[in-house]
């Protein structure tokens, strides 16, 4: 299963989106991120899709250069103050790391991470030794969910028998381990 299929199979992850409002300024649609309080061009943010809040629901769609969003329910024009959101992008190393995990390890890791209060989209940094074709080693992933920080060490072996072991240390000193062997 590829990473896109895996992400579709898991429950909606907290903090997976950047959301805010839009305004038409100087003949361009500007997105105002409500969390980071930053402004960006909508067309630059919408490369991988956009969601528009209408009728009490988020509607997935594709950005049209005319300031319209094409959805399964039709084409909607943007208006000043509309709420929109974009799925956060995962860094290349992190995305490749998630893709490299065998299905059982991936799903067990996500469930474990979520049980600790973290989302896949809380990743701040990922060192992925698998990108360097190392068959054994340790990957380092740092997560921040705004309430706590977690440092995950992923001990792995690849070859005839694969194994994955995850250890997390939280900023309060708590530690936890999760293993997936074979």
Automatic annotation (TrEMBL):
The domain of life for this entry's organism is: Bacteria
Q: What is this protein called?
A: DUF2777 domain-containing protein
Q: Could you tell me which species this protein originates from?
A: Geobacillus thermodenitrificans
């Amino acid at each position: 299963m590829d990473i896109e299929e895996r992400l579709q199979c898991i429950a909606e992850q907290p903090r997976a989106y950047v959301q805010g409002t839009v305004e038409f300024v100087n003949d361009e649609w500007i997105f105002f991120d409500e969390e980071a309080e930053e402004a960006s061009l909508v067309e630059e943010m919408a490369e991988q899709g956009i969601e528009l809040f209408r009728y009490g629901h988020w509607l997935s769609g594709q950005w049209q250069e005319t300031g319209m969003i094409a959805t399964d329910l039709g084409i909607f024009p943007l208006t000043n103050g509309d709420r929109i959101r974009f799925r956060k992008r995962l860094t290349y190393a992190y995305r490749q790391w998630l893709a490299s995990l065998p299905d059982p390890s991936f799903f067990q890791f996500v469930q474990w991470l979520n049980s600790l209060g973290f989302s896949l989209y809380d990743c701040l940094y990922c060192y992925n030794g698998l990108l360097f074709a190392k068959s054994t080693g340790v990957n380092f992933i740092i997560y921040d969910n705004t309430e706590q920080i977690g440092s995950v060490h992923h001990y792995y072996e690849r070859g005839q028998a694969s194994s994955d072991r995850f250890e997390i240390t939280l900023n309060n000193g708590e530690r936890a381990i999760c293993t997936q062997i074979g």
